Amino acid sequence: MTSSIPRSKQAGLHLSLVLMTTMVTSAAFYLNPSIDMAVSRYFFDGEQFPLRHNGFLQALRQANFWAGVVVIGVSMALIASRRLRDAAGINFGRAVIPLVTYGMGVGLIVNMFLKDTFGRARPRDTIGLGGDQPLTAAWEMSQACPSNCSFTSGEAAGAMAMMSLVYLIPIGWNVTRRVVQILLASLAISLSFNRILFGGHYLSDVVLSMLIVTAVMFAAEWLLRQIRWEKLDPNRGRRGSSRRGNATDIAYPRTQ
Prior knowledge:
The chain is mostly helical and 256 residues long. It has one domain. The protein contains eight helices and no strands. It has helices spanning 7-31, 34-42, 55-80, 82-88, 92-114, 154-161, 174-197, 203-227. Helix 5 (92-114) packs antiparallel against helix 8 (203-227). It starts with 6 loop residues before the first helix and ends in a 29-residue tail after the last helix. Mean pLDDT is 86; it is low at 237-256.
């Protein structure tokens, strides 16, 4: 069965749903900061967060960094080489999306703006969880932390940005795309919630980072569809260009 919704509208619909979910979730955490405290307290033994020293979880944290390096590297290679894009069946717009997701979502919005603006103390620095700083709600301004603070989670943002790897899977590989989506989603959730176990972030820090990065990813796709990605391709019009990189094939293949 063929989808009746144009892919450009699908991108806008997905973006709208994520933005609405982000607003509702933000309101819930802002009005009920006790949710964050209750979740973090579950992993606190009265003196510390013991899972912080778990070797497997530490290794999982390192995997998050290297996964990001791989996705960014592949994205940059495809952007730089038309030959690689043609061989992989990837158009210029889809190659750009992972780089925008990491650069704008993880880098600028989460790590450079949010973490150094709201001043939220990390759970392990909060009263009742081994620290001496007051609990503040998500989106509440505070002076408890000067920089690299708890709100929101940079590592959760990076974990969610891995989902942009799906855009680098050739159109038509529907089964492969679904399998990769499931695997990446499971890995992203595991890597993100790892920060809660360590006492490094609250539930809201993790969830909102994941939603913000997802919104940036869908916004990048929607914008590229509006301006037509081929206008940005420095190699457009060269002889031998592949039709597999058609502008309509950015992310959501029609189901058969």
